[in-house]
Amino acid sequence: MNNGPYAIRVSSQKGGVGKTTIAVNLATALSLLNYKVLLVDADHTNPSIGFHLGFDQVNKGFMDVIGKKSSAKSVIITHAPTGLHVLPGRIGATTKVPTPRAMQDIIFALKKENYDFIVFDTAPGFFPEPASYMKSYNEAIIITTPEMSSCTSAIRLAHKYDKVGIKHSLIVNRIKNRGYEVSLREIEESYNGVMTGTLPDDDIVPLSISERIPAYLINQNNKFSRQVAKAVSRYGAKVGINYTTNIGGGGSFIDRLLAMLGLGRRNRISQSLKESV
Amino acid sequence: MMRELKLLTLAAIATLIMLAQPYAGNSAVQVNGSVTVICPFNVYMTLPSTYPRLPSLTANYTVYTTQSCPVENNLAGTFTVRNQTSNAIVYQEPVSVSGNGNSRVNSAVTFSTSNMFNLTYVAYLAFSLSRYNQSTSNTFALVNYANVMIQGFRVPQSVNQGDAITYAFTLHNVGQAASSAISLSLAISGPQSFNFAYGFPALSPGQSSNLSITLSNVTGTVGTYSVKAVASYNSLGLSANSIPVTAAYSVVSQQNFPSGGGGGGSTGGGAGGGSGSALPQVSFTYMPLSVAGQQGQIVQSQISLMNTGSLPQQINLNVSSIYSKFLGLSAYNLNLLPNQSTTVQVYFKPNLTLSTGVYTVPVQISAAYQDGQKANSTQYLTFSIYKQNNTVPTVATQIYLTNSTKLANGVISIIAPKNASINNATLVQWIPGSVAMNASDLNFYGLPTNITVVNGSYKVSSYIGNLPRNQTLYEYYSIRGSVNPQLLLRSQYSIYTLSATQAQDVLKVADISAPTIVSNAIGTITVSMLYTGTSAQPISFTMLPPPQITLANYTQNVTALPNELLVRQFRIIKHPDNGTYLFQLYIKTEGANLSYGIPVVITPNNPQAPGTDLSFLPTYLRIIIFIALVIVILWLLRGRIGRGPKYSPERAGRLIRIREQINRGD
Q: Which residue of A177, A190, A256 is in closest CB contact with B655?
């Protein structure tokens, strides 16, 4: 049974860690799993979902809805290749920070619509926002990269979420698997939440932005998309509808065998996912 | 060691479990506390590969059992349509069937296309009962209907009376589906009206055909005419008409004769023809009704008469002097005994200055009988003079009546233009229906002919394969028991040519790979081709090798979807030891085809060739080379081994301390 839209805030304290990329691809993966998904470009400072989906020339956007110049319904666009509904950002819109009240109103309004998930791509940072507004979200995803300053920012953001009482999870992005990176174990030990995804630094991402097609749609079987599929696989229980897919979820025969025996290399993330769900 | 053994044992057990799973999932019997027996069933769906994009469409499906038991009641399933490219669902609805004791249930699901575009989709139908699942899927493309247009309709502004007229145009299917049963109707209105219809081959999407229709015997009367052309066709079950195109032209008189010279077919038809009863006791056993001749050439015909009376007769023939410059008789005065016959030769000799056109020439005949009585009659001969055209073919006819006009014979001459040959043309003759009682009375010889009745007229279609330029082809006919043979003068003739259809550019060869083959190995030719059509279509690949070579697969048939890259491989399994051999590749689909010549080089295997085998080296040298290679590989991999991030307790502790600082800071 669907208990209303599940609102996810994709966020980071630091800019340039891949929030929009992850928001777009998570939303795409959920949509291709048959969920009804609304993707909101709530980044008032630098709206960029349009560059990922080809909506960079819209006349009305999120800030127009915030400013009550347009209704959300009149601004929402359907992205035909993915079936996503998108509330885009307008590049020329004001960069004034929306008031918490306005944000809360729009989240409540959108949550009345018939969606399974609403994914908000937000501006970097954490503004002095009251708990009442933040609690409009069902969950926040913190994005970080495996380097010290980014991890520190993620810890700081996690602390703020804890303070306002919003559930959060962590996705580590742009993993190059180099010696100078902070290891996943270190991140897991220092982060007091659930790590739900580890995404590799993959050439498909810049390619997808260049082609204006979500990476998940270009190739659902590369490393990046498989990790995206893994990250979204836990969301069925959130909305009470479980659609299944074999995309990206299977892995090789050896992977499946090891996973069955509890000896697999995916063990760490699987374990985290189990706990979080 | 023990850990590895344990791991292997567990792996073996897990493999057995996984192998067993599929059978458990498809089992007809499910054990779940109690035993539920389900009659095994299967399902298939029938969908056309191409659909018109209507607001709603219907897919038919059948659920049937695979054993002798009925389909379960209230069998529930789901019908889903997905975008083939994005996999996004564009339509979904639950479906259900009930066997009601039957082992086969036919049903249908109607689905909306409101969320669909002109793309390729996959329809899935899945039924499940308990843990027993069956599903099927079909791929289909949504397209717009065919849209046949008549483009570039060209008609001369004016044409001389009696001359042939040529209409040229292009039939183009600008729609997304194939069009079939194409029929073109021409309606000519003016002083005289004519209606013609022609059938044409199917046109694939984007395909076009250039057409040229030359009509003879439709310019007999001077005046202004209008011609309207409409193509009707069928597309995906829908009948449609093209937008009509019209053009106007004038038929002008060029004749330099006074009265009696003009008139054309209709005048000649009304007055012409020998009449056996015009002169008592004289029978015209052979009388030309219509003769055609080219400027500068002599055409010979004849008039045969018979004295059917019991007394001798004197018969005089006379042609007015104004016609004598192009018509002459071999005799003007005849004496005939009872039952005697004679023949008078008629020479038509139009000189180059005589204008083209249709002339009705009166021949006065008088008979003086021995009993002193006299009788007069005028016979009219229709004479068509044409000028051989440089670019369009000409049709000339000779019509003769025999046995007191009950039997009509004719010769049709098809004259190729001076500067062009005729290829794959069709001669269509439109003969008035009143000429004969039924189609079986019409007999044509000389060309493959088909006779049908269209709108009360006989439509006689004859195929002309090839006629070199400036050459003439003859077709002969006879009409038995002709009711009103004079109406033959009103027959119209048209030659239409359908140029080679322009191959639609839907097949694009992206790559052909034919590597050099060594004599003791087999080889593969790989062909990559992009199909850019708008609907799913079958495509055949045929590779023909030279006689010395054998392929494992000569012909491959595949159904291509729009914008699909097809990669086909042809394996050479038997070949000579060396040489260069030319293969022929043919790729065909409806409305388009490609052919390629592919040279393949076969070289002899040379075991002494340096670099191919190191067996000629001493063993120690081979070991040294192997070790050197391993060192090089390890050196290349040096940066990749062990370069991943390492767990650093110091760094982890630092992060934890930062977290604590942040927590304390608030």
A: A190
DSSP A202: -
**Phi then psi dihedrals of residue A107, to 5 deg:** -65, -45
E-state strands within A92-210? 117-122, 139-144, 168-175, 194-200
Nearest neighbour of B645 by CB, restricted to A31, A183, A192: A183
Residues of A in contact with B652 (CB under 8 A): 185-186, 189-190
Q: Per the structure block, which two tokens stand in for B28?
A: 């007809």
Q: Return the beta strands (E) in B533-665 as ranges.
A: 537-544, 550-551, 555-560, 564-574, 579-589, 592-603
Q: Are B287 and B303 in contact (CB under 8 A)?
A: yes
Q: Which residues contact B542 (CB under 8 A, 6 or more apart)?
A: B554, B555, B556, B585, B586, B587, B588
- Mean pLDDT, rounded, of chain B: 79
Distance CA A223, CA A234 (A): 18
Task: Note the pTM of the prediction, 2 decimals.
Answer: 0.46
Give the CA diameter of chain A: 57
Rounded Cα gap, residues B402 and B481, in angstroms: 11
Q: Do A177 and B645 touch (CB under 8 A)?
A: yes
Is the alpha carbon torsion for B418, B419, B423, B428 positive or negative?
Answer: negative
| Angle (CA) B401 B402 B404, round 5° | 100
Q: pLDDT tens, A188-224?
A: 888 988 888 999 999 889 888 887 888 988 888 888 9
Chain A segment 191-230 residues within 8 A of B by beta carbon are 192, 217
A99 interface with B at CB cutoff 8 Å: no
B interface mutation test: which of A155, A181, A217 has the most B CBs within 10 A? A155
> pLDDT tens for residues A57-106?
788 889 889 888 888 888 898 887 788 899 999 887 776 778 888 888 88
Q: Is the separation of the CB atoms in B283 and B308 below 8 Å?
A: yes
Bridge partners for B528 per DSSP: B511, B567
Report pLDDT for B630: 92
Q: Is B639 exposed, middle or buried (0-12, 13-18, 19+ CB in 10 A)?
A: exposed
Nearest to B399 by CA among B219, B513, B268: B268
Task: Please tell me what DSSP assigns to residue B100.
Answer: T
Q: Do A81 and B10 touch (CB under 8 A)?
A: no
Which region holds residue B532: left if phi is over 0, alpha if psi is between -120 and 50, else beta? alpha
